[in-house]
Amino acid sequence: MKVFKFGGASVNSADAVRNMAEIVKQHTTEPLVVVVSAMGKTTNNLELLVPHHQYHTPDNIPETLDKIKNYHYNIIDQLFGSNNQEVYTQINLLFAQLEDQVMHPSFDYNYNYDQIVSIGELLSTSIISLYLLHIGVHNQWVDIRTIIKTDATYREGKVDWELTQSCVSNTLKEIVATNGLVITQGFIASSGHGTTTTLGREGSDYSASILAYCLNATDMVIWKDVPGFLNADPKFFANTTKINTIPYNEAIELAYYGASIIHPKTVKPLQNKEIPLHVKSFITPKSEGSVIKNASHIEPETPLYIFKNNQILLSIMPKDFSFIAEDNLQKIFGEMADIGIKVNMTQNSALSFSVCIDEHHLVFDKLIPRLQKDFAVRYNKGLQLITIRYHNPQIINEIVNHRKIYLEQHSRITAQLLCEM
């Protein structure tokens, strides 16, 4: 049994869906679970509908809803032609749910986020499942919220592994055995109370990893628009090198530092059962790609670069006569954890604590006002965090290129530099 994961770029148009269907058709000789993200930039557009989002206003709701609807309707019309009645019926039910969530929100931003943004995966998988049936590929659509169970931490649900394994063993395995091909959603899950949760932004990889672990899959494959695991993001580097083999531990480190090709939580469940993770191109599906597995070193050995834009450097200093000791650090990290702010890099001295975090409206709306009750807070916006694995001084100088460095850390293997963009 294999688990495939297709991201938004692989299903962002009617032609892309047809291509994805051809790849799936080539692998239906054995049981297959296919995990799919929302189509294209649907998640970004759905985020605009979440009440209290920085760009959400009552005036833009109709326009945003129409944009999302028309995007999906256009794909449906191209895929199904005039035989689209059943598809429209199912999709319009989901749009009705979306409108109800938007018009009748709760006061909890994170709860609203999960109820609204999760509709994207339900839309994409419904269309894809029906299209596969339309072209004669038998499959079963599964609502993953009945399988993957989490706590009620909205936007970052913590997986209840015991309950999830039970749902997989008692329900999903039988569905796969009966139908051979299952189409389901990434990113979303449900709490013990039955409310929709999500696994964190870009969490579809993690969804596939959870299912691969619980199903004892032989392999997991992530289908991307790149030829494999590259040593740098092509958006930043004109010339990149494909890494053929990556050890599990190296992949975990790279994901932790922000490598966009895999979700940070994806690798560990696979490592625990030594399930290989293949990264392959949906553009050239027959090419070899890359594999993350039990190995001693990366091959070929080459420096690895990770860039994170739109970073904020917070400098936090006590207002009283205290120092940056354990009690103050506990208070700072406690506020970040409560709001859901992730830390990318830290550095502290006796009198100040510096932290690099992603730029987000919650930093200014909640975090800084809370910290200012006890601390003096300064910040710099619009920075770039550069992480280099297997660095040397020449590489660092070439990458930084005389830009101002706000924060810098080195270990034997990894260098991190927070710079002007």
With strands numbered from the N-terminus, the spatial order across the biggest sheet is 3-5-2-1-8-12-13-11
Approximately what portion of the residues adopt beta-strand conformation?
A: 15-25%
Number of domains: 2
Structural class: alpha/beta
Distance between the termini: 45 Å
Outline of the structure:
With 421 residues, the chain is α/β, with parallel strands linked by helices.
Account of the 3D structure:
This protein has 421 residues and is an alpha/beta fold. The chain folds into two domains: 2-217, Acetylglutamate kinase-like (Carbamate kinase, 3-Layer(aba) Sandwich), CATH 3.40.1160.10; 304-420, VC0802-like (2-Layer Sandwich). It has helices at 14-25, 42-47, 61-80, 85-103, 109-117, 119-134, 161-179, 204-215, 248-257, 267-272, 326-339, 361-371, 393-400, and strands at residues 2-6, 32-36, 140-141, 149-150, 181-185, 188-191, 196-198, 219-224, 229-230, 242-243, 245-247, 277-281, 290-293, 304-318, 343-348, 353-358, 375-389, 405-410, 414-420. The strands form four sheets. It has an eight-stranded mixed sheet, with helices on both faces. Strands 15-16-14-17-19-18 form a six-stranded antiparallel sheet, with helices on one face. Strands 4-6-7 form a three-stranded mixed sheet. Strand 12 (277-281) and strand 13 (290-293) form a beta hairpin. The chain is globular. The protein starts with a strand and ends with a strand.
Give the topology.
Blueprint: E1 2-6, H1 14-25, E2 32-36, H2 42-47, H3 61-80, H4 85-103, H5 109-117, H6 119-134, E3 140-141, E4 149-150, H7 161-179, E5 181-185, E6 188-191, E7 196-198, H8 204-215, E8 219-224, E9 229-230, E10 242-243, E11 245-247, H9 248-257, H10 267-272, E12 277-281, E13 290-293, E14 304-318, H11 326-339, E15 343-348, E16 353-358, H12 361-371, E17 375-389, H13 393-400, E18 405-410, E19 414-420
